[in-house]
Please model this.
Amino acid sequence: MAEKSVGPYWKRATEAERQQFLEAFLRFMVANYAGQFDGWTGQSFETLGEEPARMDTRIVRTRLLDPTDEDVELNYACTRPARAGRSSTSIWTAR
Model:
C-alpha cells in the first residue's frame, strides 16, 4: 500500500528514502486504525490461530470480542518479508 500511495516516485526513491517513508506510513496506518476504536469500552482481541496459505503467506485469524454487540472475526493474510522490514498485510472481516 505504501508503494502504491506514492506512485511513480517510489522507483526514483533511494532505499533510505523508501525505508523512511515505510516507517512514516506504518505510524500513520496504526494511528488511523487505532483512532477507529475511540469511544469503545470493554472490547478485546482473541487470537484464534494461524495457518499457512498460498503464495508463501500465513493467515492469522482473530476475533474482536464485544460484550455489547456481535463479535467480529478479523483475518489477516501476511506475506513473509522479502527483505528486512518489508511485508504486507491484508485484513478482512467474516461476519
